[in-house]
Amino acid sequence: MSIITLKVNGGTHTLDIDPSTPLLYILRNDVGVQGPHFGCGLGQCGACTVIINGAAVRSCITPCSAVRGEITTLEGLAKDGTLHPVQRAWIEEQVPQCGFCQNGQIMNAKVLLDRNPNPTDAQIREGMAGALCRCMTYYRVQAAIKRAAVSLAAGGPVSDKGGLA
Amino acid sequence: MTTFTNVPKQVEALLEQCSGTISRRKFLESSGLLVVSVGAAAVAGPFAPSANAQAPGPYPDPNFLQLDSWIVIHQDNTATFYVGKTDCGQGTGTAFRQMMSDELDIAYDKTTCIMGRTDITVDQGGSGGSDAIQTDGWPMRRVAAEARRVLLGMASTRFGVPLDQLAVSEGVIAVKADPSRRVTYGELVGGRRFNVTLTGNDINATTGAATVKAVQELRIVGQSPQRYDIPAKVDGSLKWAVDVKVPGMVHARNVKPPVAGAKLVSIDESSVRAIPGFIKVVSKGNYVAVVCEREEQAVKAARQLKVDWQKPATPSFPASEDLYSYMRSATPTSRQGPNVVGNPDAALASAAKVVEAEYDVPFQGHTAFAPAHAMADPSNGQMTIYSNDMKSYGMRSGVAQFLGMPRDQVRVVWMEGPQGYGRTAADDAGFEAAFLAKEIGRPVRVQWMRHEETGWDSKGPAFTFKIRGGLDARGNLIALDYTAQAADYCHLGYNEAETVLIAQLMGTRRATPDAGSAGTPSNMYDIPNKRTATAVVSLPLVWETPLRTGNLRDPNGPQITFAAESFIDEMAAAANADPVEFRMRLLTAGTAEDSGFKRARSIAVLEAAAEAFGWEPRPSPKPLDTGTILTGRGIAYTFRSQTVVAEIAEVEVNRLSGHVWVKRLVCAHDCGLVINPEGLRRTVEGGMLHSLSRALHEEVRFDTEKTTGVDWISHPSLRHADTPARIDVVLVNGDPNPNRPDLPHYGAGETVCRPLIAAVANAIYDATGVRLRRVPFRDVRVLAALKAARV
B472 vs B351, B509, B527, B575, CA distance in Å? Predict the structure, then answer.
């Protein structure tokens, strides 16, 4: 066990934990966020995605000791009670079926749009390759990403990593 | 006005109360459960004193013949509906609210809905069979109509005017002649009981004295309010079954046998005793689990525990590449049929052309997006299980039997989880959590690991088919001889204490396996001479096997329809006929009574799909393209229960790689009265793509002792790159009297899974002239078929 400090969604958490523990378990069981989900524990499905330093990180295979930087989870996307344009697009497009994978879809879409505000269909397919869905909502996910891109271009909130000029 | 959250947030309140973070009184207020207790000991359901989370039990069944079990009106003129269903992600909860709000005459956004919690919602069986709207929607509509009738009666008494002089709108009843005389539902009965007894021999027949509205009077049904559950799924605030935590809770992980049928010899507990937080290894028979204080400790302990197993002396099953030859040579464990119409042998003997084909479909897994999970709390000598089991009521009965507890001492709190689709109707984790909680005497959370879920979940059965058909000289299909075999012996029941995996592993299972079933095609084709026969075969290992079969979304439908509708396409090609025209000829030839207008509606969906696609009549295959990409289109049609669908796939086949991309899908869908069109469209899209995943990727692979697909690499699923560029969903009302006031609402979901694989196979044939008769159509298999045909 050792003392680890994690910054999550603007808060700071100092924990006495086994530093090799995958970040996902600590986020869910100690920090108390529930956006990231366990899907495979193998970094294959995207359910556990969090954003660290602008990158989509698989928290199920990331040891806590390896985390450098602030962690943003699904709960942290909204600012001052206003949903992120990606989240709004998700509601407008009524994307989820069961919704269990949608953390991975939304967080990966957010990173994709931060890096490429106007992705082509091919770039969306490529950028979202690691986000699986077993209800097969892919068609609506892709539509929602395009919808969010339009919304962001029209002056939605600028991302924290400056993905939008 | 009360700001309504949604069902999950109501469950969240329950959990917060468990954790002691909100007061009991606040919980009762927020959930509409705070009532003046009158004769409370005699009732169960929403008004029962046991309805709060910390109630010591017992938890008797809510009485479905009491209106108060279904609907609670609050003082602020809002309503909560309590229904015995669960939502697997298709938005059925929203649809229930629409139907019940409409009949009650209250605004949709003034209502909420609680589902699947066995101690406070009536037992409608949970979800399954796409029956939520078709079957369970009726008692929901009738009890809501009854509540409206009773409220009107109260207003009539209050104002001293006859019923026909009252008007009701959005929960407010007014005297027509003097609208200033008005009263809200909340003022009439808010927070109090109706005390109205309903009638009905079973829950599906539940009714009051009121009649439901005509279709023309429905205002909310047919609209597309957004699903109430989606915002919390998008902002991260939803509490899922995986999120349940209560004080004192510990974590468990299973240790599965390394190969099927292995027997436990010994466990070396010292191999994990040093792990911090280690509590106990629990084993009984061949069931082994480790329990630790923290989740990561349990994961580590399960991985580290040294267990000696004895492998079975003989192979448990053929390797997956040998499966079909094994099935074809096996002696069936049971047979159904043959059912014979006309004289198929004579017709085939006299046919101008006879076609014979064999088709194979592998075992396909549920491979839920997240593994099985549940949390069981044994407090107060009762057992409360938090679970995403789609049939929470069955889990309650099954766990009670499994643990030898009275049913009244067990309750299941249904919460959302990764897709159900049958897997959670034969749930495992709830039984395991309850067993371990009883053993440990503390709340236990169980979650499977990915390799367990992919390897050991229940499977849709493998099928082999042999079909012969005969054409007369004019190209009419005059004879069909259909045989199907399913590897479905020992098919799992729903949450059965005697067949659930933990019971198998512990050795407490029953002796006799379920017979299983195969099945015959569902279509309205008029074929004068026909024979259908089915059989079930068994693999060598019957119990304690990762190839245990269970209901997978539209059980057996995709397999059977792949064979049946591929074969119809083969006959169309043999007749040199357009595939749509050939099917239309078979439909329009029918003269038998058209029960449920399924023949008329079949014709309507075929026409609608062809029109939406822009189908140009011509026989398949089309002349071979010269480039690398070969394109084609294929159609398939079927029905399930009363819902009729036709689907068209447009494909691109890469001649060099064998890769198939389904570029476009069209579905024409007739499920009668549509409750929520936009919700239905998304359900259709998801269902079709689920079958597309089964068409292109999914196959349970195994050697002779274990499944070898254990993750998303070794067991691939559909991905973003596979998504069609365009999907058109056409909602059809093919009823001969489309405006009839009693147009039924049929079950919408699973039918769309059924014809898709055949549509893709038929499109590949159209593009390449190569008929793929074995699922899935992986690149390597398609390429081999193209090369063999010198395409």
Answer: 5, 53, 12, 9
Q: State the SS3 of B530-595.
A: EEEEEEECCCCCCCCCCCCECCCCCCCHHHHHHHHHHHHHHHHHHCCCCHHHHHHHHHHCCCCCCH
Q: Which residues of B touch A96 (CB under 8 A)?
A: 89, 227, 230, 233-234
Query: 3-state secondary structure string, B412-464?
Result: EEECCCCCCCCHHHHCCHHHHHHHHHHHHCCCEEEECCHHHHHHHCCEECCEE
ipTM: 0.95
CA distance A139 to chain B (A): 6
pLDDT score recorded for residue B681: 98
Domain assignment present for residue B84? The answer is yes
Which CATH number does A2-76 carry?
Answer: 3.10.20.30
Query: What range defines the domain where residue B695 resides?
Result: 575-788
What pLDDT shows up at residue B591?
A: 82
Q: Which helix (H) or strand (E) holds B349?
A: helix B344-350
Q: Where are the domains of chain A?
A: 2-76, 85-153
Q: Final residue of a domain: which of B187, B218, B238? A: B238
Is the pLDDT assigned to residue A122 strictly greater than 90? Answer: yes
Closest-CA distance, B386 to chain A, in angstroms, reads: 16
In a domain, B340, yes or no: no
Q: What is the CATH number of domain A85-153?
A: 1.10.150.120
pLDDT tens digits for B231-273? 999 999 999 999 999 999 999 999 999 999 999 999 999 999 9
Q: What is the pLDDT of residues B595-617, one digit of tens each?
A: 889 999 999 999 999 999 999 99
**B365 is a domain residue:** no
Judging contacts by C-beta atoms under 8 Å, the chain B residues touching residue A133 are 369
| Between A140 and B53, the higher pLDDT residue | A140
**Contact flag B417-A38 (C-beta cutoff 8 Å):** no
Statement to judge: residues B233 and B255 lie in one domain: no
Could you tell me which of B272, B267, B300 has the C-alpha nearest to residue B284? B267
Give the tens place of pLDDT for each residue, B392-442: 999 999 999 999 999 999 999 999 999 889 999 889 999 999 999 999 999
**Closest approach of B587 to chain A, Cα-based (Å):** 32
A61 at B interface, C-beta within 8 A = no
Whether residue A2 lies within 8 A of chain B, CB to CB, comes out as no
The predicted pLDDT at position B56 comes to: 79
